[in-house]
Amino acid sequence: MSKNTENSYQQRDVCIDKNESSWNKESYNAWINRFGEPKEAAKK
User: Fold this and answer.
1) What pTM was computed for the model?
2) What per-residue confidence (pLDDT) applies to 30?
3) Who's near 35: CB < 8 A, 6+ residues apart?
4) How far apart are CA 17 and CA 6, in angstroms?
């Protein structure tokens, strides 16, 4: 594997990790806005 290809894969992995983190955070925030904190939602 060439050095450029390896670097490209590393950059892609970093981007995927950042996107996943952002999506997870936004999904969690949407859930909290809709249902409240997990402890409160569990009581319902």
Assistant:
1) 0.50
2) 92
3) 41, 44
4) 17
